Every structure is written in structure tokens, then in C-alpha cells.
Amino acid sequence: MMIYVVKFFYNWLLPPGIFITGLLFLGILLFKRWKKAAGFTWLVAFTIYLLSISPCGDMLIQSLEQRYQPPGEVTDRDVIVMLSYGATKDTPDVSGMGQLSGSSANRLLTTVRLHLKTRLPIIISGGQVFSDSGNEAQISKRILMDLGVPDNQIFIDDKSLTTTENALYTKEILLQHGFNSPILVASGFHMPRVVMNFERVGMDVLPYPADYRVSRTTHLYFNKFSPSSGALSNSGTALREYLGIAALRFKAQ
């Protein structure tokens, strides 16, 4: 029991907990002379606290991850499409330079397993987003070949910088090679926005979510109410996805 108590208070000494603590004390210092400023400071601290605890982060990310279920059968499909989600550029790897981020690697693992099960070809979509990040599609192709996927079974879009471009450039590959019924692999939290983008360009996709951030069944306990960077990351990721979904709906009007 003691170790959980230590972990609870330990989180308050690390970001974001230390910032929340600092804002609370700042509010106390401001209260006597500037009550409105103190109130605003406490409001900011409370907002950051809510976004930094697991019950809030889990709820937000689950609301996206639970929209689609992995299908039981995929026999009527003719290609697997995977959207990548980050890579490093010059980090050493087994067969070259550059590695996939955690989300991209999880998606690739699901993609490889689907390929082994169906023997369908694979399209990887994702370019080099920043000057110091890796080309996601090219790194993914190298890893796929390391895992035994034949070169002639891999097609890449290494130009996409956004989810909208993922859909547009993937459609070009589908038309070029005569594919009609893709299985779409992306993170569960990303899937709702991905599907909307692909539907906007007229593509009928079978969503196959992967890379789940939280368990389907969660429990409340003491330590979940201490702030953590992981919970804040989940909250931020979910809010970014909702903002992207809202922007797509606004464009459709």
C-alpha cells in the first residue's frame, strides 16, 4: 500500500503535477490583493488537473477508440492500407537508420499480422512531416521487408503530411493498381477522423482499429487521481482529434 501512496505524491513533483502545485500557491499569494486574478489562476490549475488525471484522459480517448470494432472477417477485401503516425529520422535500427514511433509500430504490427492472415498487398501512407523526423512510409517498407513481406506486395505514399493527404494520395495508388476494397489500419483514437477523410474522397474502407491507448474496462483507484503526463497526453490527443473532426464537418457545410 505504501508504494501507491509514494507514487501518488511523487507525481505532484513532476510535470504536470508540479505546475498545478505552483499555480495553486500562486493563487494563494494573489488572493489578498487580486481576488479575480487568484480565481483565474485556480481555474487554470483545476482545468489542467482535470485533463491530467486518468479518469478524464481515459474517458476522452475511449470515446474515440470505441467507435469502431475490428471486423471478424476480411475475406472480401483486396488490399491493406496503413496510415503511419510518426518516425525518427537518424536513430539506429537493425537494418538501417530511422525507427517508427510507438503508434506507427503498433499499427505496423497489426498490418503485418493481417497480411500473414490474408496475403493481401499493403499500402503504407505517410511522409516526412518535419525536417528532423523520418519518412514514415519508407521506414515502414524497410521494416516490412525485414519481416518477410515481398517488395512487390508493398506500395507506399511517402508524400503525405496530413490525414487529408493520406486519403488523397492513397486513392491515387488504389486507382493506379485497381484496388477497390481496402482494409484501413489506424489507431483507434485516430480512426473516426481517418474514416471521415477517406469517405470525403469517395473511398469505401473497412476500418480495422489498432494501437489502443486504454483498456475497454477501466477501474477507479487512488492513484488515478494524481496528475500524470500520460493522462495529459491522452486528453490532448483526444481533443486534437475532436478539433480535426469539427473542422471536417465545418468544411462539409
TrEMBL record:
Alphabetized UniProt keyword annotations: Membrane, Transmembrane, Transmembrane helix
Transmembrane segments: 12-31, 38-61
Superkingdom of source: Bacteria
Domain DUF218: 78-244
Pfam families in UniProt: DUF218 (PF02698)
InterPro entries: Cell_Envelope_Assoc (IPR051599), DUF218 (IPR003848), Rossmann-like_a/b/a_fold (IPR014729)
Protein name, UniProt field: DUF218 domain-containing protein
Naturally occurring in which organism (per UniProt): Sporomusa acidovorans (strain ATCC 49682 / DSM 3132 / Mol)
